Amino acid sequence: MTAGTTALAATGLGKKYRRTWALKDCSLSVPEGRVVALVGPNGAGKTTLLHLVVGLLAPDQGDVTVLGSSAGTTRTLSRVAFLAQDKPLYDGFSVADMLRFGARTNPGWDQDMAVRRLASLDIPLDRRVGKLSGGQQAQVALTVALAKRPELLVLDEPLANLDPLARHEVMRGLMAAVAESGMTVVLSSHVVSDLVDTCDWLVVLNGGRVQVSGDIEDLLAGHRLLTGPAELADGVAGRLAVVDDDRTDRQATLLVRTGEGRPPLDPRWTDRGVNLEELVLAYLRRPDSAALPKPALARA
Ligand SMILES: Nc1ncnc2c1ncn2[C@@H]1O[C@H](COP(=O)(O)OP(=O)(O)OP(=O)(O)O)[C@@H](O)[C@H]1O
């Protein structure tokens, strides 16, 4: 793996089902080795984007490149693992059968790692998959994906239907695998708090469009939450890029994009940094706001 190269690049990517665009003008670029949080409301186009990345769908517009090659080619598919939303497990198989199936269908299969991982999680190889708990099934599905030794791991809502402890365990297992392999991960989720300690790149999709794509640290450093008198809000909004604007008769709360540093403000304003949940919610509330690299913004 070469440092500084691009794991995932989409240019003007679009996909429509019949006459409706599920994804439109989607342009983004994610460096290798990142753990990407793909967030957005129901129907935003997350699954559609992930299916385009793993070659399950073909674009109707634009293109998507994965690890330097077109998505969906044989060369790309051997380097990518995908964990679909409804975990791709066979209930009637034992866990050992699932591993045998994985070994037959994946040339680079790492059986030792799979067996070690399941043993460390106390998941018996002879247990039928259908008899495992939801958390254990998620761990088996993740193990099957990891044993492929992918360079890009794509997970569509891997935490759906899991209790908080199981969510934590799955994320912890995923992070251990990332630390060991350096692979790029893209995972979609509705629950931003699950992603806070794990992901270092954020993509926000809303209504089939990319609103945000960037390094999470940079994004957090480049936004601030301002609170001040409502009568001064228009003046601030005229100077700064306002992502979200919440006003009562007396008070205004503005989430603004500042770039580096703190903006000079009238002393009647207070300002503070934002957390990931606040940032994501602000963009989702305002589908017309965008924080994208300049070329994509210029087209919007
Ligand atoms: N096979 C399909 N046929 C027709 N429309 C579809 C199909 N798959 C998705 N869509 C539509 O495309 C849009 C995007 O759907 P998609 O499943 O990609 O969103 P999502 O962000 O993954 O949603 P969720 O969070 O609910 O899983 C939605 O309006 C959906 O109804």
TrEMBL record:
<dbReference type="InterPro" id="IPR051782">
    <property type="entry name" value="ABC_Transporter_VariousFunc"/>
</dbReference>
<dbReference type="GO" id="GO:0005524">
    <property type="term" value="F:ATP binding"/>
</dbReference>
<dbReference type="InterPro" id="IPR003593">
    <property type="entry name" value="AAA+_ATPase"/>
</dbReference>
<keyword id="KW-0067">ATP-binding</keyword>
<keyword id="KW-0547">Nucleotide-binding</keyword>
<dbReference type="GO" id="GO:0016887">
    <property type="term" value="F:ATP hydrolysis activity"/>
</dbReference>
<feature type="domain" description="ABC transporter">
    <location>
        <begin position="8"/>
        <end position="232"/>
    </location>
</feature>
<dbReference type="InterPro" id="IPR003439">
    <property type="entry name" value="ABC_transporter-like_ATP-bd"/>
</dbReference>
<keyword id="KW-0813">Transport</keyword>
<dbReference type="InterPro" id="IPR027417">
    <property type="entry name" value="P-loop_NTPase"/>
</dbReference>
<dbReference type="Pfam" id="PF00005">
    <property type="entry name" value="ABC_tran"/>
</dbReference>
<protein>
    <submittedName>
        <fullName>ABC-2 type transport system ATP-binding protein</fullName>
    </submittedName>
</protein>
